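Sequence in, structure out. Go.
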Amino acid sequence: MLPSIGNLGSSWSGSEAWKDRMRKYPHTMGHIVLCREESTGRVYTDKNGERRISYVTGAKEREWIRNGFEGLAKLLHAQGASEICTAAAGLPVWRRAVGKAVDWSDDQSFLDFLEAYRNTSYDIDRIALGSAHQMGTCRMSGSPRTGVVDLTGKVWGKEGLYVADASVFPSASGVNPMITTMTFGEWIGRRLAERMRREAGLGEGPVGEAAIEAKL
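Output:
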């Protein structure tokens, strides 16, 4: 993980602690906890006509993230991590006692660290939360009442307009969507090529480059 990205989620506890963390960065591994939300935010227009986004982490999501972090921390402890830190403001860094190799359940300092995390505020300015791989903004559906594109990626009611990326996800995948996005792209691309071939009077079968260029 690049320092410019990884350090966005590092809590500040002073310049000396920061320099020490940077010296250790070549031996640092970054992890994230993924959460598929049920709560939703909203996009609205303020009194000045500017678009604004409002999002507050829901109670369920806070509990899921908390459980995910605890499971991850226990795994890292079992793997022999010497230090564990989080993006929660004010939470201390857990450090393994030198020469002390015990199970996490018998390590009181680690249990205290988990308890401190459980009491962490999940306000938007107290813990690092992020969003990536946005999807589903042009939802694929069987009806224009419930989505933006049909099952071939064509925008409902608009001839010649197609969407073929993560926008067409019917809902968020909850995991990295790379392979699914590629699959959607190939599916929609093949359906579009088949349609172009039929409209060019070339019948069924593989689409030739000349036929596609002529249609375009």
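Check: The radius of gyration is 24 Å. Confidence is low (pLDDT under 50) at residues 208-216.
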